[in-house]
């Protein structure tokens, strides 16, 4: 399911790995955690941006500190945005401690998509 022009698809580790493998275009993933106040504040902004047709949008729940995704993508803080193309990271925006992320973080990553 390509999930363009709609609400971000919420995923957990296994489903994210599968989605990453089968998405040929750009995929913008917001790594979040339920316990993160900055994530809760950022999610409506991310959902609002998900109508952008340049990328598929997903959220990945990292509430479990034991998730290997923390290490695999060197995530130090949530929220973190990763832009993928063909399964490879082509852009990144790490949340700023005490501030989180903004709409500008999303727009900057989307501006890196050619065309």
Overall description:
By secondary structure, the protein is α/β, with parallel strands linked by helices. It has helices at residues 13-22, 37-49, 69-72, 103-111; strands spanning 9-11, 26-32, 56-61, 80-85, 88-94. It has one domain (9-105): Glutaredoxin. It is 31% helix and 25% strand. A five-stranded mixed sheet has the order 1-3-2-4-5, with helices on both faces. The longest helix has 13 residues, at 37-49. The model has no long low-confidence stretch (mean pLDDT 91).
What is the element layout, followed by pairings?
Elements: E1 9-11, H1 13-22, E2 26-32, H2 37-49, E3 56-61, H3 69-72, E4 80-85, E5 88-94, H4 103-111
Parallel strand pairs: 1-3, 2-3
Antiparallel strand pairs: 2-4, 4-5
Helix-strand string: EHEHEHEEH
Mean pLDDT: 91
Order of strands across the main sheet: 1-3-2-4-5
Q: What is the CA-atom radius of gyration, in angstroms?
A: 13 Å
Annotation field: number of helices: 4
Give a quick account of the main beta sheet: strands, pairing sense, barrel closure.
Answer: 5 strands, mixed
Q: What is the CATH domain class?
A: Alpha Beta
Share of helical residues: 25-40%
Low-confidence stretches: none
Task: Record keyword descriptors for this entry.
single chain, 115 residues, alpha/beta, Glutaredoxin, five-stranded mixed β-sheet, 4 helices
Write a brief structural summary.
The chain has one domain: 3-Layer(aba) Sandwich (Glutaredoxin).
